[in-house]
Known about the structure:
By secondary structure, this protein is mainly beta. 0% of the residues lie in helices and 48% in strands. The chain contains no helices and ten strands. A hairpin with a 6-residue loop joins strand 3 and strand 4.
Amino acid sequence: MNFTYQDSEVKELYTNVTDLALGGGNPVPTAIVGQQFPVLKGTAFLRDPSGSIIVRPTRNAAGAIIGYDPVADPIQRVLGQVSPKYLWGGNMTFGYKGLRATIVADAKIGASIEVV
Length: 116
């Protein structure tokens, strides 16, 4: 059986860089000074002051509204923590009259993704 607690913080990056993407795409794992490593940074939905998602109408060729699409926020932001804080794992093997059974358990707890 094993247990791990992970707590990390990015203290500094190369020559005054405060934000470093660790790949490409959207969202992307990112190292940000002062935050845990790594965080997931990407595009969220644009919201009004009350917190509601802003939508715009989708129109067909005739100009009639056929639905609504959420508006993307032009500024990328942290969407969540990629690495779990707690890791737990273990295994047990049982035997009876030449028959063996193994049980393996694994848990990763504490990663979070915001609903954006």
